[in-house]
Design a protein that fits this description.
Helices cover 60% and strands 4% of the residues. The chain has helices at 6-21, 26-39, 44-56, 60-73, 78-90, 94-107, 112-124, 141-148, 154-160, 168-180, 184-197, 202-214, 218-229, 235-247, 251-264, 269-281, 285-297, 302-312, 319-330, 336-352, 356-373, 378-391, 394-398, 421-429, 442-453, 470-484, 506-512, 525-533, 547-567, 577-582, 584-594, 641-648; strands spanning 410-415, 434-438, 494-497, 517-522, 572-576.
Length: 650
Amino acid sequence: MPAQTPSKSRLAALISQGRGLLATDPGEAVSRAHHALRLAPESLEAALLAGAGLRRIGDAAQAAERLKSVVVRAPAVWGPQFEYGAALAALGQSRQAIEHLQRAVALNPAAGLARLALRDQQGLMEGKAPPRDIVPPSVPRRLLESFFGGEPDAPRALAAAGFAPADPIMFKALADCAVGWGLASEAEKRLAEALAASPAFDALRLTYAVALHAQEKFPEAVREVAILRTRSSGFDVLRLDAALKAQTGDYEAALELYDRLLDLMPGEPDLTLARGHVLKTLGRQAEALTAYRQNAAGLSGAGAGYWAIANLKVVAFDEVDLQRMHELIADPRTNPSERVDLHFALGKALEDAGDFAAAFSHYEAGNTLRRGRHPFDPAAHSAFVDATVATMTEAFFSARADAGTRQAGPIFIVGLPRSGSTLVEQILACHSQVEGTAELPDVRILAAQAHARSSACEEGYPASLAGLPADAFTSIGEGYLNRTSLHRRLGRLLFTDKFPGNVLHAGFIHLILPEARIIDVRRDPMACALSAFRQNFAGGQAYSADLGWFASYYRDYERLTAHFDTVLPGRIHRIAYEDLVTRPELEIRRLLAYCGLPFEDACLRPHEANRPVRTASSEQVRRPLDGGGLEDWRRFEPWLAPLRDALDRC
């Protein structure tokens, strides 16, 4: 066999080197490809390498131009079809991208990256549900944390493990995995940078929007989905749009989208459940129950369906339900999340049947699983309260007396979950000058942003607030009002923000919104603790999964609010649930006076309000005010001695 000429040998070496560099240094791979093309302008391999490298450094337009001729010259080779389809996808040309990605998959069914890219593009197209049988790569969490955390050696480690992050298709898949692992905040910055380089890559924009949504950054996610909706009416875009509409108060539009999605994918459990939640929020209880029953009857999502039925708090389960729930709990194939749902649903069913010992056993089993998945650190929380008390002194607030925006508007309803805060919100929303919104995440988000921009951020929040100039609090307050305008639809002067955890940020709220009202709703801690222990919260409130944790949190909650009563006297209005339901007119008049509102008789009839209610108390607040049920917690008193002892020590 004759030896290769020096130019052929050099060409082969350049192409081989370039291929090896694609995963870690695509810019250098392009350089090798261009060198090779100077040696052999007609080389298909060199042209393919150049196009592949250009796509990976974000120059999709040049990549597509280069690859177009390669595809024409080598129509039966899968690699050029994939690279060209991926470049077209980055340019936002989904229909053409799908055509070439389908050819790539047909030519090489084992090409996982091509299948992923095809699935993404099909998810952006209108009129059909994308395939669900394509499994994204399973990447170790530690690799994702190091990569999205910006560790310099992470790209090479990922490439060595077979996950080449320089490829935008793989980068998107890695970001999808990161969001699935709960690393949305870590992935957000890298996604924003990648999107700035490829603004037409809609599949990447969708992942970015999903990451924002996972962090409850609703205004930002809505902005991204609005961009996507100008170019796509595909299944995945509509799905995210529906969720955002439900979470920002546009319930009728959300319902319409869920109906449309279920036409594309009939019976899909997550969609059926989400549709049921919207119906429940709108007060269409019978229709919500039908949707939940559909979930409970299925092979997937049954646990979530049963818990949703139980959480209506107006439906009695029959023996068939009880038997099936027991069978599902015993079935080793039932996933941990559904097992939690089933324990709480069975707890409610057995409580309704009067078997309180068995009910408590299931509540305890469900919470044991919750504790394993969502731990709470009482010592760390106490340290946070210590830091708040140490930082937010009378002198601290006096030095910032002119901080914040003087605009009126927000009424914050804070405290503990299951304390009666939804009832207070419902009462206020009956007033002609108040709009009831929801549990809004914006204070928490803005507090984190304020901490990050502080010159004293290394000291931790809230001590870091001392490192911000006074005028920063004004802009942050204005930012809060801008962000929350997304949830306001009635044009009323005032609006509620009913996120209980905002009590931890009461001092921050005072700094950014000095005209805001803050209402602390209290309830007998024994009743409140048990009610929270029996509630399978969708997220947050990790301390409610252990009665000892709850007692510790309650101690710190009392300590924190007592501190604010001292340094900001009269700033927080306190209302006891027991007083509210036994002497409603007196307490409602006091409440309205604190909010600077005239008394209106409609506030005495909150059950007549025709408004959406999203919280777990949605059905209770649609019943007339009465003092019944105040002592219901005593049915579980035999199992609550440790809680009482812990509370007595507070």
